[in-house]
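Box S2. Input/output pair 1.
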Amino acid sequence: MMTMKRILILFTALFAAGSVFAQSEYNLRRRTLFEVLPVLSSDIVFLGNSITDGCEWAELFNNRHIKNRGISGDRSGWLLERLDPIIEGHPKKLFLMIGINDLISGASPDEVLANIGRLIDRFQAESRWTKIYVQSILPVNGDLPGYERRKACAPLIVPTNKRLEALCDEKGVTYLDVWGALADENGNLDKRYTLDGLHLKGEGYLVWRDVIKPHVMVLYQIDYKWDSIQNVLAYSAKRFFFCFIPMMWFYALSNHWARMLFGRLDSFLLLEEK
């Protein structure tokens, strides 16, 4: 009996280790992919864990400049290790959502906030034109059968989000509350939007999209910050080169043709009078 018990314990441990390895392998494969895929200054990057990874953001917003850099199972500390390819591309905007895997695994809110603060600091130091949007940690639902263990981290989410909002104010970046749009009256992830109490169904992503859409789709914002001024100047330059200059060229050419036409007409009338 004791031998059978030991075998079961060993089997459980090996299964858990295999799951961790598989997750790490997926994380590594995605990292290597993102290292060779370019990020451009015109891009909008969505960065996070499986909740970000699970959406086709470019299709959802019908915007080919959106790049998905979510990795399933990612945590805030691991995310810090894969920022280089994104920062080096100096994307136009960054939409970040991270932290729920940290809390589920037993990490403290202090650790999550410290890592997010380091991420913001890196972007502000090395890619200061990037507009940063930090999204709230989403609610979970531990009432669904088979997913009760998520109840343990549920009470931490709202306090962590409040501190996250304060951190964004301190760092001068934009905080977006997506939690409120997806939570039910009890503060759980609404069952209409999930199958497992953590990840979103299609309807949930539509709700998320509607919350952040004004920030994703806006052409530029005038808020007297250097990043916004740069966006305004870039947009104005595009309008100048692609709208104003062709219009002026067309006006000058049309004026030239009109002068030639009227000149010939005037010459013809003078000949008729003679």
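Box S3. Input/output pair 2.
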Amino acid sequence: MSDIKNVFDMTGKTVLITGAGGLLGPKHAEAVIEAGALAVITDHHEDRAVRRAQQLNEKYGRECALAFHMDVTNKESIENVVNKLDRIDVLINNAAKDPKVKKEAGLTPDSRFETMTSEYWAEGLDAALNGTFYCSQAVANKMLKSGGGVILNIASDLGVIAPDQRLYRKEGVPEEQQNVKPITYSAAKWAIVGMTKYLAVYFATRGIRVNCLSPTAVYNDHPEEFVEKLTNIIPMKRMSHIDEYKGSIVFLCSDASTYMTGENLVIDGGKSVW
């Protein structure tokens, strides 16, 4: 039987992370680097990817991160990065467009279902859903040639439960002008959970495991009013901290989860249980 420490060891592994220039992406990179892996930082803003990789290399005092420009909505851009790497052991599909609900209200927001345009709908699904499909397709083909690997899709607790629109309401604003969390985000995240299950079964006997991680909102200097409203619907009575997903990332990406595929690990302080 393997030593428990060894099954979490990712030494020699190459992990490609999409959307790694944002909030959680760098933390996913820290997690796999601390487990011994090489993190490949990709982002549609090349300067942001380069900056993140430099910060990681400086933090750990070694060449543990590479940086590439990659647009997950463009198959050619994805292939260019995939072809530059000798191998990819793990893909973390983290890229998404998370529309932030504006503090202001009073104008009819594009995010409302009644007035949402087809362009807004398509754009909202592009990075998260189409990007997950395109990247999984490109990387899975490479994994199949090298004996397998792991695909980890990042979804959301809003891919399990519907958003509570009361969090975004403003007093004295007409209903049709209230800001809302748009349907595009939920639709994309629910679909990613479904894609995870499909691909897990599709590749089950071919050496590729596919799982999903669904975090909840991470505290990032949110307005006090919003934090108070949100924490009131979370059993643990607080938002998540930015470092609280690192252990789960290593578990799902390493040999610690070799008999796990097609699952969605929800980490939300109990929010989806109520």
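Caption for Box S3: Helices lie at 4-7, 25-34, 46-60, 75-84, 118-146, 183-202, 224-231, 246-253. The first strand starts at residue 14 and ends at 17.
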